């Protein structure tokens, strides 16, 4: 196993840095400085993706024949690390990361032609319609009905926790097309246009901010929504196979780059803030111990992810490792947001809505405390999600118990 970067990799790193210096402009940097979850508004986000696409860097995991970069795992790692260290917006989305691999593997030529170019160019924003009220961890119990009526399915029911449904032009969606004894058997995988009559979106406010502006999750209702049968991926009632195939891409990302960036911010705050004893938080013994423990976890995760890249380059499968990364990565994310909260102290206290009102210019009085403290509490609340979404951490424990321990 060789963990050193080659000369070619180092030259590539310089190219990524040069791109970031030019493309990640001051306006985007200002917006990202106020973001609790590495997102900017839809216009800014799409502008960023289009810049990546112009450079040919939008689809880092796609094969070159579909417009992907065809990068090695090392290049992908370098790209992710440099983007995270710069605090750049998300470099990927659900269309690129989740929907496209399914369309490539199981879609018809027509579907590939219709969707892949628009995913690449960010002309179409996709959302994921998997979870339903009562069907999250036990996803196969989903009950949103799709009944056949000639060349269409008629959909009735609802999807929940749908991230950025309010931005989405299309949804990839699981529906029930048959009631078989084995519940996985009667599910189909559909692609649907969000402007189809009968779809309504209700925002779900979260603890981390106002219900407008940074709205993240929603419930989507379907009332007699007609979706062409031609929009089905693969075979009717075989959707579970495609759904599971997609999930490996949802959990496949490296955590260490983002964690490294988050820790750097904590160190910056702890260098500026004082503890009760009057010394810098960074010099407070108890805080240093916690910071060091977290740094060691992040370094260990980084080394493990690099080891996994080397193994994947040699052709090995991820297996249960993606569950392990999800567990360790999400726990480290939450630990770091707690450290940030502790380091910022009282400056992290203002009610979140007030903080954002001031940032958006809706209030004249200045907020108490330095700018870097503004997103600390929203981020702490926002990151409670990481141990729930993409399969809760308990479910990842179950997967590891089954696949690794054979229990
Ligand atoms: C911020 C956020 C964004 C999301 N975005 C999307 C999206 O865009 N599209 C989408 O389809 N879904 C999305 N989800 C939904 C997410 O996939 C589900 O929340 C998740 O799968 C858990 O399902 P649930 O919420 O129904 O909880 P439940 O499944 O009801 O679980 C409740 C608790 O019970 C535990 N539990 C359940 N079953 C077991 C078991 N067998 N063994 C041990 N413990 C168990 C869980 O770990 C959890 O702690 C999002 C969720 C969040 C929080």
TrEMBL record:
Domain Acyl-CoA dehydrogenase/oxidase C-terminal: 237-404
Top-level taxonomic group: Bacteria
Cofactor: FAD
Domain Acyl-CoA oxidase/dehydrogenase middle: 127-210
UniProt KW keywords: FAD, Flavoprotein, Oxidoreductase
Pfam families, alphabetized: Acyl-CoA_dh_1, Acyl-CoA_dh_M, Acyl-CoA_dh_N
Acyl-CoA dehydrogenase/oxidase N-terminal domain segment(s): 10-123
UniProt similarity note: Belongs to the acyl-CoA dehydrogenase family.
Name of the featured protein: Acyl-CoA dehydrogenase family protein
Species for this entry: Phenylobacterium glaciei
């Amino acid at each position: 196993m060789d963990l050193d970067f080659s000369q070619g990799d180092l030259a590539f790193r310089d190219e990524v840095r040069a791109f970031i210096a030019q493309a990640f402009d001051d306006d985007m940097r200002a917006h990202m400085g106020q973001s609790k979850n590495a997102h900017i508004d839809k216009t800014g986000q799409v502008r960023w993706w289009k810049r990546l696409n112009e450079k040919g860097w939008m689809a880092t995991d796609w094969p070159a024949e579909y417009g992907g970069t065809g990068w090695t795992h090392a290049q992908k790692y370098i790209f992710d690390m440099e983007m995270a260290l710069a605090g750049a917006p998300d470099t990927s989305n659900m269309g690129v990361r989740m929907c496209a691999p399914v369309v490539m593997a199981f879609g018809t030529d027509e579907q590939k032609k219709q969707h892949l170019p628009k995913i690449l160019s960010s002309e179409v924003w996709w959302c994921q319609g998997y979870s339903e009220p009562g069907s999250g961890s036990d996803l196969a119990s989903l009950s949103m009905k799709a009944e056949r009526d000639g060349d269409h399915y008629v959909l009735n029911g609802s999807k929940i926790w749908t991230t950025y449904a309010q931005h989405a032009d299309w949804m990839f969606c699981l529906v029930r097309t048959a009631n078989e004894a084995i519940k996985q058997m009667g599910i189909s995988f559909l692609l649907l246009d969000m402007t189809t009559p009968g779809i309504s979106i209700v925002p779900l406010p979260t603890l981390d901010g106002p219900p407008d502006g940074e709205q993240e999750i929603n419930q989507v209702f379907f009332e007699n929504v007609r979706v062409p049968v031609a929009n089905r991926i693969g075979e009717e009632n075989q959707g579970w196979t495609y759904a599971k195939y997609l999930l490996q891409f949802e959990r496949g990302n490296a955590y260490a780059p983002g964690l490294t960036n988050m820790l750097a911010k904590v160190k910056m705050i702890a260098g500026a803030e004082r503890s009760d004893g009057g010394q810098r938080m960074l010099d407070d013994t108890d805080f240093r111990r916690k910071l060091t423990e977290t740094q060691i976890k992040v370094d260990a995760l980084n080394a493990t992810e690099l080891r996994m890249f080397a193994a994947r380059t040699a052709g090995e499968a991820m297996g249960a490792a993606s569950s392990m990364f999800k567990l360790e990565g999400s726990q480290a994310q939450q630990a770091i947001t707690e450290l940030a909260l502790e380091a910022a102290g009282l400056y992290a206290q203002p009610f979140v809505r007030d903080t954002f009102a001031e940032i958006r210019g809706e209030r004249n009085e200045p907020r108490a405390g330095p700018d870097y403290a503004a997103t600390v509490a929203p981020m702490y609340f926002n990151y409670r999600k990481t141990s729930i979404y993409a399969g809760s951490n308990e479910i990842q424990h179950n997967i590891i118990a089954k696949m690794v321990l054979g229990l």
